[in-house]
Design brief:
By secondary structure, this protein is of the alpha/beta class. The chain is about 30% helix and about 25% strand. Helix 2 packs across helix 3 and helix 2 crosses helix 8.
Length: about 325
């Protein structure tokens, strides 16, 4: 089969496209012919050697995608049939024509949901789902501050918060991205190069927000500064650098809550994956959330896709198509 792979860590130039061995299907696995593959910043971190990476050289990136079942392992018979449309959010080696998917990680794909939509939605959508349902359960009239509101997770956070009846203040790095956040439903947006903390305090009449969805890391203390007494900061990413250490006495004195979130502590079973993804698919079909049209690259042009992702010019999902 053809795959996108690398043998040494580095920039996009280390990526190669060529023949590798087909997966050896195990008894508990389903073989999927890939139709669309999601590209995420975690793939960049893995390529650079800064993030956990499965297997050994030649390394194949990718953890998210959708396709068609072509073979079923003996212990997976009955769970999937040849020809079924399926997807996954947490299976390694996805940057390939064929992927062996463990049966408990398989997500059935409704006929009404395209392969491209599934590959654009699942990883980031499931993240936004647990952040707004488990890390902090958004309630009617809650005011939420969303960092990187034009990003993949950010735009879905905005839409889901609005679906729950909350109000959203979005932070972005450019005017163009601010427009994307507004299109997603943000009530107001501010730029990072503005005095955004003062602006957030102004639009909340000095009270502060109920919750901050913090994905930048280096802005963690700023997020606490604009959070109301008894409010919550949900920390789930470090795109802008490591956060400063938190003094628990500050949390005690202000009755504020700091909570962390990681998707892999939530997607612990087939039932969890199916229930959460089914809810996302239902929201898509009823029109309460949408996925912006992705930017598409051929899998063999993966190096160009990585370069584009690292440029931070994109405001939606990037897909690789075998």
């Amino acid at each position: 089969m053809k795959a996108l792979f690398f043998e040494r860590f580095g920039g996009p130039e280390v990526l190669q496209y060529g023949e590798v061995a087909d997966p050896i299907l195990q008894e508990d696995e389903i073989l999927v012919s890939m139709k669309a593959i999601g590209l995420n910043f975690a793939d960049v971190y893995r390529r650079k050697g800064n993030y956990h990476l499965a297997g050994k050289p030649p390394y194949i990136l990718g953890y998210e995608g959708a396709g068609v079942v072509t073979a079923v392992g003996r212990n997976a018979i009955g769970l999937a049939n040849i020809g079924d449309r399926v997807a996954f959010a947490d299976v390694p080696f996805a940057n390939a024509e064929l992927v062996a998917v463990p049966k408990d990680k398989l997500i059935p794909l409704p006929n009404e949901i395209s392969f491209e939509t599934a590959a654009s939605l699942l990883l980031q959508g499931l993240t936004a789902h647990y952040l707004t349902k488990d890390s902090y359960a958004v309630r009617l009239n809650d005011v939420a501050l969303v960092h990187a509101a034009a990003g993949g997770v950010g735009q879905l956070l905005v839409q889901i918060i609005k679906r729950y009846g909350g109000k959203v203040i979005g932070l972005t790095s450019s005017v163009q991205k601010a427009e994307a956040a507004k299109e997603a439903g943000a009530d107001v947006t501010f730029l990072y190069n503005e005095d955004w903390k003062q602006e957030v305090k102004r639009v909340t009449n000095g009270r502060g927000v109920d919750v901050v969805y913090e994905s930048v890391g280096s802005t963690l203390m700023d997020s606490f500064e604009v959070t109301r007494t008894c409010g919550t900061v949900v920390f789930y990413g470090m795109a802008g650098g490591d956060p400063a250490p938190i003094d628990p006495r500050m949390l005690m004195d202000t009755s504020k809550t700091l909570t962390g979130g990681d998707l892999w502590n939530v997607l612990t079973s087939y039932e969890e994956r199916r229930a959460r993804s089914s809810e996302l698919f239902r929201w898509i079909l009823e029109g309460s959330i949408t996925v912006k049209t992705p930017t598409v690259f051929s899998l063999q042009d993966g190096a160009r896709a990585h370069t584009y992702l690292e440029s931070r010019k994109s405001t939606g999902k990037i897909l690789l198509i075998p």
